[in-house]
Specification:
mainly beta; M1 Pyruvate Kinase, Domain 3; three-stranded antiparallel β-sheet; 2 helices; 11% helix; globular
Length: 161
Amino acid sequence: MVVMMTGEISQLNISRGGIPKRATPEAKLTSEGLEGDAWAHPKIHGGPNQSILLIGQEVLDELNALGYRLFPGALGENLTTTHLDYNQLQAGQRFRLGSQCEIELTRLREPCRTLDVYNSDNLEKIQKLLKLEGRGGWYARILKPGLLFTGDKIWFLAQVV
């Protein structure tokens, strides 16, 4: 059973490709993702079912407590969120972002070797930690595009799958 979830976008992140992604106070969300954002490996990342990536600030805080030096956007997420329970997230859940946008979670992100830059000595450990309980983030497809702003609220709408 899914509890009603709400959260917040604590940071919007874009890059011309690769990590880290850098903060932007606002961004236009299109069917392809955040305008101005790109992927270093478009055959692996991006596409209609992986238009954006969400990761919780709580995940970054947990990894920082373990000695990793991470910050919002470091793991390649487009939306750094707060207050979403990543233990409750599932593919097929729909969320409203801000006043206009809607997304649907499609799949968990599998951490890759790109994260070597953050602690190659413990790469296996960080990859294992990120795979647990959705900590690696969730990819989503865009249902309704529009403008997003840092601080926008996130509301659970429905579970469709």
